[in-house]
Design a protein that fits this description.
single chain; 2 domains; alpha/beta; 13 helices; 13 strands; Rossmann fold; 6-stranded mixed sheet
Length: 339
Amino acid sequence: MSPRPSSRPSPRRRPFRALAAVACVASLALTACGADDSGSDSGDEKTRTFAADNGDITIPEDPERVIATGYAVPVLIESDADLVGVSEWSRGVPLMTDEDRETYEELPKVAGETAASTNYEAIAEAEPDLIVIGVPKPALVDLDIEKLEGIAPVVVLGPSLPDSWKTISEKQADAAGASEGFEKTRDAYLAEAEELKEKHAEVLDGVDFGHVGAYGDISAGTFQREFAGSWGTNIATDVGVTYAGEVKKKGGGAADVAEYPAIEELPASFADVDVITYTVGPDGKPEEAVQYVLDSGLWKNLPAVKAGKTVGLRYTEATTYTSALQTLKALDEALGSLQ
């Protein structure tokens, strides 16, 4: 009796990875592609020990069927990992390239937007050889890690601070065997950031910035003041923007780089900055919590506002190097308006 064909989904591969695989097969008669002589027999899966948030985990050396959740989703799509399932990541769709968006839409969804919505049966049906969990530690309480470990090796690599995506993404790609694709996206970002840093050096030299974030609470009469390393600021600092000051009291995680003063504290909060940036949507329009600040009479009397030194920043929510290229483009336009 012939074996029944597997119904499991094939990993999503994109051109350069697929071509590499073809080249490897073509050269197999001469040499083992990507392997060293000290490895195990061809029938055995090579493994390695990987340091993750959940400990030292034994994972495949070259994973072929990867599940990604949370912040790992866009990273591993951009890095061309061999994905067989992802969680929903709708917040990042507007920042995806057409190719990445197509990949995202075609991949089976094994969870919603939250860790609590994880579909363990769907993950098991995908027959992964690695599961990359990219959620912050507080969200892990909503996951049954033990159940996931019964399906495949699990590496937890979630952000602890808003700007930690820059280091976490590299580890996520490494775990998934997609470092080559990741490095291409990172290098493109770093080159563009350095170019903009030189271009706007005169405008930025000796200038202190402040930032109004999108997560104030209007009902409580508060606004969000973001400092260096926060959501609205961490990409701007890569092009040489200096965000002055720090939170009065660190509260751990994002609360180390952002605070929520009462609107009455607006004058004191921004009294000593030369330029104020604020978060806007992809269409350039401020979110309600930001508009609340802009409509305040206190805002209109700030020194930077009176001097015409305020500007909205688009795409500040980027958490991957490819999506952050759009942020850099928006920053180039914004900083150009300060000339």
